[in-house]
Every structure is written in structure tokens, then in C-alpha cells.
Amino acid sequence: NVLFKFTTVPFERAIKFHRWAGRIAVFFVVVHGGFEASVLGIREMVKFERAAWGFGNAFGTMAGFSSVALAIFAMSHVRRVNYDFFVNFHRILAGFVYIA
To answer: What residues in the chain have per-residue pLDDT under 70?
Structure first.
């Protein structure tokens, strides 16, 4: 991988960092979504509306659910059963989280 060549970080250390960064990110996504849902209500969380500042909270909710699904499918006992499925699903959900 080009990134490892430039940073000279060992693969195992990079994977460990990636896992911890992902866990922390999902934790904050869940906390943020929980606070938003408690303040705005569930109906507001799935509302899709076009406004000057964006499209409502629907995309954030979809990204939050995608983050949780990504964390579930990245668990070691799920990942080890079918690694190819994990890698492909991980890429798809990571792209969806990024876009949403």
C-alpha cells in the first residue's frame, strides 16, 4: 500500500489504530444521534426537507445507522466467518457514511 510506504507505519499498528479510531467515531456518532433524537424527536430525525443549510436530518440518520452496521460487521467473530464479505461491505458502508 502506498500509504504504508510513505508513513513507514507497520501494517499491524495501522490496523490497530484504524479499529480504535472507528470505535471512537461510532461511539460519538451514537451519542450525537441520541442527543439529537432526544432534543428534536424521532420524527424530525427522519425528515427530509430541502433548506438553505442542507437537507434535514435524514442523511445524518442514514449515516448513523450505516456507522453502527459497519461496527457490527467489523466485530471479530463476524469478520472471521466471511472476510471477503466483510471487506466489500466495509467499503460500501464506509463510502455511504462519507457521502451521507
So the answer is: 1, 52-54
Distance CA 36, CA 47 (A): 13
Whole-angstrom Cα distance, residue 34 to residue 37? 5
CB atoms within 10 A of CB 73: 15
| pTM, 2 dp | 0.78
Contact of 100 with 66, CB cutoff 8 Å: yes
CA distances from 56 to 26, 31, 51, 70, 89 (A): 21, 19, 7, 23, 26
Residues 6+ apart with CB under 8 A from 17: 9
**Distances 89 to 21, 24, 26, 30, 46 between C-alpha atoms, Å:** 18, 20, 16, 20, 24
- Give the type of residue at 19: R
pLDDT per residue over 16-37, tens digit each?
998 999 999 999 999 998 998 8
